[in-house]
Amino acid sequence: MAVSRYHWVEVWETAGWQRIAEAHCDSHHGIPYEVSIGPGPTAAVATSSMSFVSVWRLSGSPVDDALKPVTPAWPIENTSQVSFTADGRWLATHTVSRVEVRDPATGAEVQVYEHPRGNYVGPVRFSPDSSRLAFCYTKTIESHPADLDDPDDVIRYAGHTNKVWTLRYTPDGNSLISASSDGTVRVWEAATGLQKQCFEMNVGKLLCADVSPDGTMAAVGGATGEIVVWDLE
């Protein structure tokens, strides 16, 4: 598990909850905003701040020397959301006006998705099979083919009335879950954009959500400090 805190990034081994890696983000790059960890024993760890995206690699060394920068941090337009593909090959970053897909080993830009500039940075998420990329700006959720072979193959998920803060695919890729400041969590048919379920959770603005690895349960956290867990099946 990777976490970010004030000028630091930490990686924890969850079986015994031992800290296995940490890195200091210098003040020039800013305070880490989001962190994402890729797959594998020497996984890449990506962090974002107001001005930069940084990528680190787990080295297997002791804690003090376990995270190594992969490539110089690259500048971004504003605080970014980040998401790896399931195989760790690509990293998506989302700023206020565009989504960029990059090679995390080099920082080279692979694809760009432009969209109308929003007033906040919405979530970005690859599907489990890495074939599609979902992201949100203002109240609009869209899913695009990750390779841009068919730029017109856009799926839209309409219904939220306020900002969407979290997107999560179910492990089978069949459903997309969104949580919003409008207080609702919605479950969508990923392939069509059809809304399957909508729940008013009554815990204030919904700021985060996740799905269990087996796809049977989901959880959301609200501005009241409460967490709601429910059965997806």
Question: Any key phrases for this structure?
Answer:
single chain; 233 residues; mainly beta; Methylamine Dehydrogenase, Chain H; 4-stranded antiparallel beta sheet; 22 strands; globular
Notes on the protein architecture:
- The chain has strands spanning 2-5, 8-13, 18-24, 34-37, 44-48, 52-58, 67-75, 81-84, 91-94, 98-102, 109-114, 124-126, 132-137, 140-145, 155-157, 164-169, 175-180, 184-189, 195-200, 206-211, 217-222, 227-231.
- The protein starts with a strand and ends with a strand.
- The protein is mostly beta strands and 233 residues long.
- The strands form 6 sheets. It has a 4-stranded antiparallel β-sheet, with no helix packed on it. Strands 8-9-10-11 form a 4-stranded antiparallel β-sheet, with no helix packed on it. Strands 12-13-14-15 form a 4-stranded antiparallel β-sheet, with no helix packed on it.
- It has a domain at 122-233: Methylamine Dehydrogenase, Chain H, CATH 2.130.10.10.
- It is globular, with a radius of gyration of 17 Å.
- The protein has no helices and 22 strands.
